[in-house]
Amino acid sequence: MKINSPKLKNVIEKDFIKCYQDEEISEGIFHFENQKPMQIKEITLDSCIFEKCDFNSITLKDVDCVDVIFEGCDLSNQVFDKKLLSRVQFKDCKMVGTSFIGTSFKDVEWINCNTKYLNFAEAKMENVRMEDSLFSESSFLETKLKNIEFNNVNFNRTEFIHTKLKDIDFSKCEIATTIFDESSLKGMIIDYSQCPYLIGMLGIKIKD
After folding, report:
1. Which of 156, 158, 83, 182 minimizes the C-alpha distance to 124?
2. What is the mean pLDDT of residues 147-158?
């Protein structure tokens, strides 16, 4: 599946706080940690690279992301509800408890990320790849999925409820304790070894 990568041209090292004060966080490479508590709100992160940035003391509010790479960053407990993420990559990131309720995703990748307890309720995902990542105990409730690729993803105790999974391949994922409702299961692709769990979840017994 082809995913459009972030469009990054002429990006240079910049000071994140100064850029925010100038109301333009764009075309920059940013490195920071242990910032004093502050709120970044009502802005678009555009054509940016964030490397090893710790957002624990920074609250993002009403922030869109377009053409952005987050690499080695901690974005735990941030809220991107009802925002836009377009051509965004998360690499080696920690995103425990991050919320994406009603968020629109287009050309987004998670690679080698720790992303437990995420909330994707009512989100819309198109051209999205999740790879070598932990998505356990997350929620996909009434989530709309189109052109989705899951590769070596841990979905243990994650729930897919009222979320159509037709033609989505889970065969390389851990779903031994994933929660599905019957309507979501229809048409999903699994490996033969995953059949006993899904059959048992549906209350079907296999005769020896």
Report:
1. 83
2. 97
CB atoms within 10 A of CB 41: 11
Question: Can you say whether residue 77 is alpha, beta or left, with left for phi > 0 and alpha for psi between -120 and 50 degrees?
Answer: left
- Which structure tokens are listed for 60? 């993002």
CATH number for the domain including 33?
2.160.20.80
Q: What would the mean pLDDT of 29-52 be, rounded to a whole number? A: 91
Residue 103 and residue 125: Cα distance in Å, rounded? 8
Q: Are 173 and 153 in contact (CB under 8 A)?
A: yes
User: pLDDT for 60-119, tens place per residue?
Assistant: 999 999 999 999 999 999 999 999 999 999 999 999 999 999 999 999 999 999 999 999
The answer to whether the CB of 144 falls within 8 A of the CB of 121 is: no
In a domain? residue 110: yes
Determine, yes or no, domain membership for 64: yes
* Secondary structure of 6-72 in HEC code, one letter for each residue: CCCCCCEECCHHHHHHCCCCEEEEECCCCCCCEEEEEEEEEEEEEECCECCCEEEEEEEEEEEEEEC
Query: Is residue 2 situated within a structural domain?
Result: no
> What's the whole-number average pLDDT of the chain?
93
Distance CA 114, CA 130 (A): 11
Looking at the chain, the whole-number percentage of residues with pLDDT higher than 90 is 77
Which range is least confidently modeled, 70-84, 154-168, 186-200? 186-200
Give me the half-sphere count of Cα atoms (radius 13 Å) on the Cβ side of residue 59.
5
